[in-house]
Amino acid sequence: MKFIDTHAHLNFKDYDKDRDDVIKTAFKNGVKYIINIGTDLKTSQESILLSQKYDKIFAAVGWHPHDAKTFEENELLKMLEFKKVVAVGEIGLDYYRNLSPKNIQKAVFEQQIQIAINKKLPIIVHDRNAHNDVLSILKKYQPEKVVFHCFSGDYIFAQEIIENGWFISFTGNITYKRGEYYSIIKDIPQDRFFVETDAPFLTPKPFRGKRNRSEYVRYIIETIAEIKQQTPNEIAEITTQNSEKFFSITKKLD
Question: What span, in angstroms and rounded, lies between the C-alpha atoms of 46 and 36?
Answer without folding.
Answer: 9
